[in-house]
Design goal:
Elements: H1 2-25, H2 37-48, H3 51-84, H4 88-99, H5 108-115, H6 119-143, H7 147-155, H8 160-198, H9 203-212, H10 216-244, H11 249-256
Length: 257
């Protein structure tokens, strides 16, 4: 089954690349706006051979990784504290619901005012956007704890942190891993978007330079790189999730199938 899925995926990709080559060649779209796949591939090869490209890729990955680590740590810590401390969840519910829907890109002017086009601007927006993905999942995970298991732990005299470790955390972990996977994708989106808008060092800034200088094939090549980077991050996050939840019934059922 997996072999068939791989073949179908490869066939779909080949058809997509062929379509991208044919559409501008047939004059359906001007090559100046959408170059053929072959020209994009040539531009991608030139980018790979440029040291500045690897520097930009490293800058993007640095902002993504640091922001994701901070967001995951803060989201898990805040989520557990809010869930464990009596009445704290009710007291913070309205604040969370007010802050969570604010688009991260709306904070770009604030980030520029505070830190200019430095890495800290990227981190501010990446952490803000990713934090909510983790926090909300932690809160949902704690809500899913079996009340009978919670009361049993209390009857056996387990303290607060012992209950968190042995009862709450195993139940919440699948939700946490979902939040981490979502946060990883969101962090990449915000890292590239911030670089693109404010000119912070990274792939986004390089895309903006290619666009303003009329290097359209290079621009598309860099967009392809960001897409591949997102694919790798998603596959990696899923692999980590399956490994961390190897004991969970959802992963065991997936492996069995």
């Amino acid at each position: 089954m997996r072999g068939l899925n791989a073949v179908l995926g490869a066939a779909g990709l080949a058809a997509f690349l062929a379509l991208g080559e044919a559409v501008p060649r047939l004059g359906l779209v001007k090559e100046a706006y959408f170059p053929p796949t072959s020209r994009i591939a040539d531009a991608l090869g030139q980018e790979v051979n440029d040291d500045a490209f690897w520097t930009a890729l490293g800058d993007t990955l640095t902002g993504w990784a640091l922001g994701l680590v901070i967001a995951v740590g803060a989201g898990v810590a805040v989520g557990l504290v809010v869930s464990v401390v009596p009445y704290l969840r009710e007291a913070t519910a309205s604040t969370i619901e007010f802050l969570r829907p604010i688009p991260s890109v709306a904070l770009i002017p604030v980030a520029v005012l505070l830190y200019g086009s430095e890495l800290r601007s990227v981190l501010l927006l990446v952490v803000y956007a990713s934090f909510w993905q983790v926090l909300v999942q932690v809160l949902y995970g704690v809500q899913d704890v079996d009340p009978v298991a919670e009361e049993t732990a209390r009857s056996y005299g387990l303290g607060t942190w012992a209950r968190v470790r042995h009862v709450l955390w195993p139940t919440a972990l699948p939700y946490v891993m979902t939040g981490v996977r979502l946060a990883a994708a969101v962090a990449l989106i915000l890292a590239v978007t911030t670089e693109l808008v404010i000119g912070a060092p990274g792939l986004g800034a390089r895309i903006a330079v290619a666009q303003t200088s009329g290097a359209v094939p290079d621009m598309y090549a860099l967009v392809v790189v960001t897409g591949l980077l997102g694919l790798v991050i998603n596959v990696g996050a899923r692999a980590v999730e399956r490994r961390a939840l190897a004991w969970h019934q959802s992963v065991r059922a997936e492996v069995t199938v």
